[in-house]
Amino acid sequence: MARAPLLQLSGITLTFGGNPVFDGLDLVVQPGDRVALVGRNGSGKSTLMKVMAGLVEPDQGSRVVPPGVVVGYMEQDPDLSGFATLGDYAASQLPEGEAYRVEMVAEGLKFRPETPVATASGGERRRAALAKLLAEAPELMLLDEPTNHLDIQAIEWLEAQLSETRTAFVLISHDRAFLKALTKATLWIDRGEVRRREAGFDGFEEWRETVWAEEDEARHKLERKIKAEAKWAVEGISARRKRNMGRVRALAALRDERASMIRRQGTAALELEAGTTSGKRVIEAKGLEKRFADKVIVKGFDLRVLRGDRVAFVGPNGVGKTTLLKMLVGEVAPDAGAVSLGTNLEIAVFDQTRAQLDAEASLWENLTGDPMMRVSGNSDQVMVRGNPRHVVAYLKDFLFDERQARAPVKSLSGGEKARLLLAKLMAKPSNLLILDEPTNDLDVETLDLLQDVLGEYDGTVLLVSHDRDFIDRVATATVALEGEGRATVYPGGWSDYAAQRPAVAEEAGRTGRGEAARAEVRAEAAGAEAARAEGLSFTERKRLEALPAVIERLEAEIAKLGDFLSDPELFTKEPAKFRKASEAIAERQQALAAAEEEWLALAERA
Q: pLDDT tens digits for 69-113?
C-alpha cells in the first residue's frame, strides 16, 4: 500500500514586488526522499523552502501536511530572544527531560550548548539552529545551507548523520561533495519553473545542459518557423487574403509564444587580470611560531610558495587558518620565525566577513567609493582593470540590475554579497589572491566559473575553504592545521590530503610522539591500507574508512542513554520518557551491531 506524502504543494503562485516567483507550482515530498534543491542565487530556493515550511503564505495554492507529520526547518537567522544560552534554544521544543538529545548532536557539530546567546557569533547561532532540528528529529527536515560555518570535520559528521537517517530531507547547499554524497532526487528551480529528476545531484550539470540544449533547439525551430511564415505573409497574402487569415492569426500566435519565453539569465562575467609578474618566490616562511595565551597556532612551520601555486589551508574552525594566512602576507607578526615576501606583489583579498562592503551604502557607492576603483571627476564610472566602465554596466556583468545598483548592500542575499565582493576584487590587477571562504553562498554555476577563472589566472592563490570539492578542483598543495601547533603541507587537494595523511601520521609516530600516538597512527595507517585493497569498490573503501567513526559515535550515544536510564525512579516517575529512551538505546545497539558486522565483512574482504 502506497504511503501518503509527507508534504504536498498544489498550484502555488507567489509574487514579490510585482514579479512572479512561482506560478502554478506543484510539488510532492514522499517518505524517505533525499532531495537536493538547486538553482541560481535569487532563483527562489530559500523562498520555496519557507513555503514548504509554512513560513511564507502563497498568493494562491495549497500546502497539505498529513496529521501527525512534523516538518522541521533550519532557520538561517534564528530568533534567540528570550533564551539565556544556545542550548536553551536548541532544546526549547523537546519534551522535558530530553535535553540529552541536544548534547548528542552538540559534540559532532562542535556546538557548545552553554554559550550565552548574548555573545554567540552568527555561525554559532546557525549551529544551534541545526542542532535544534537534528535533536527534534521531525518526519521531514528542510535544511537551508546547513554546512555554512561548519568546518570539514563537522561537515563530514553531519554527512554521516544524514546518510544513516530514515528521515526525509530537502537540502540546499553550495557544497557539491555534500550534495553528491547524500541526495537521491533533484529539484531544480529555473526561471520560476521547478523540475524534478529522480537522481541525486551527481549528474545534475549534465542534465541541466541537456535541458537547455533542448530549449535552445525548440527556440531555434520556432524562430525558423516564424521567419518562414512572415515571408509567406509578405509575399503571398495579398492574393489569398480571405482564404488565409487563419494562417495570419497563427503567425501572431507564434510571435506571442516567442515573446512569452523567459530567456535564461547570462552567467556572471568573472575575469581576473594578473598585474605585473611577481618574482618566482612569492612567500618564504621559516620556523613560524604563534600563540594566543595558551592556544598554539603554529610551531616550527616552514612553507615556500612559488609563483603560480594554489595553496589551500584546511582545519577545524578556530584552529588559526586565517591567522596563519595573515602572517604569511605580513598582516600579523609571528612570535618567532620570519616571513619573506617576494618582489612586485600586488595583493587582492576576498574576506570571509565581507568587511570590505559597507552594508548601509548602495552597491553603486560601494564601487565608486573605493579609492582603487574611483575615476577622477566622474561619479558614475569605475576603473576596471585599467579601463573606465559605467558602474551599472559593470554591475550587470555580475548579474545585478539597474534597480539593485541603488539598493543598500544589506538588502542582498549572501550569494549576491559574495558576487559584489568578487566584482570589487576582479576590478583590480593582482598577482597574489587571498581567498578566505570564497565559496560560501555562491551557486553552483558561479562556483564553476570561479574555478575556471582561477585555473586561467597567472598569479598565485592562497585559499581557506571548507568546500572539499572546490579544494580538489583548485589546490595544488594543502596545508592542514590539526591543532596544538601542528601544520603539515601535503601536495594536491583535499582528496590527496585525506589519502596521504595516514602515512604522514605513521612517520610522525616513529619520530617520538609517544606509544599511544604510535598505536593510533598504526591503526589508522592499517585501515587505510585495507581500504586500498583491490577487492573493494570505491564506495566500499570509503565506507570502510567511515565505519570506525560511526561505531565510536554509536558507542558514545549508547553510553549517554545508559546514564539517562540509570535513574532508578525514571520508570515510575516518567514512564513515557523511559520507554522512548529504552527504544532509542535498543535502536542504537542494533545499529552498532550492524556497523561492527559490516566493518568485519569489509575488512575480511580487504
A: 999 999 777 889 899 999 999 999 998 888 888 988 988 888 889
Q: Which helix (H) or strand (E) holds 186?
A: strand 185-190
Clarify whether residues 56 and 151 are in a common domain.
yes
Q: Is residue 570 part of a domain?
A: yes
Q: Are strands 168-172 and 140-144 parallel, antiparallel or unpaired?
A: parallel
pLDDT in tens, 219-259: 666 666 666 666 655 555 555 555 465 655 665 665 555 55
- Residue bearing cell 576576498: 350
Give the residue-averaged pLDDT of 562-582: 77
In a shared domain, residues 108 and 81: yes
> How much is the pTM?
0.69
DSSP assignment of 372-396: TTEETTEEEEEEETTEEEEHHHHHH
Are 282 and 341 within 8 A, CB to CB?
A: yes
Which residues have a Cβ under 8 Å from the Cβ of 407 and sit 6 or more positions away?
A: 362, 363
Whole-number Cα distances in Å, 231 to 243, 343, 491: 17, 65, 63
Q: Could you tell me if 263 and 392 are in contact, meaning their C-beta atoms sit under 8 angstroms apart?
A: no
Domain extent at residue 184? 7-206
| Shared domain check, 484 and 559 | no
The number of distinct structural domains making up the chain is: 5
- The whole-angstrom separation of Cα 321 and Cα 478 is 12
Q: Does 481 lie in the same domain as 470?
A: yes
Locate 567 and state its grid cell. Answer: 535513574
* Same domain, residue pair 489 and 506: no
Rounded to whole angstroms, the Cα distance separating 226 from 39 reads: 32
Query: Are 13 and 125 part of one and the same domain?
Result: yes
Contact 83, 117 (CB under 8 A): yes
Bridge partners of 8? 28, 64
- Give Cβ neighbours of residue 163 (< 8 Å, ≥ 6 apart): 181, 182
Distance CA(71)–CA(18), nearest Å, equals 30
What confidence score (pLDDT) does residue 508 get? 46
Q: Are residues 66 and 115 in the same domain?
A: yes
Residue ending a domain, among 531, 554, 588, is: 531
Looking at the DSSP bridge assignments, the partners of residue 291 are: 296
Taking a C-beta distance cutoff of 8 angstroms, is the pair 80, 26 a contact?
no
Q: Is 368 in the same domain as 403?
A: yes
Using alpha carbons, select from 553, 546, 557 the residue that is nearest to residue 599: 546
- 291 three-state secondary structure: strand
CATH number, domain of 162, equals 3.40.50.300
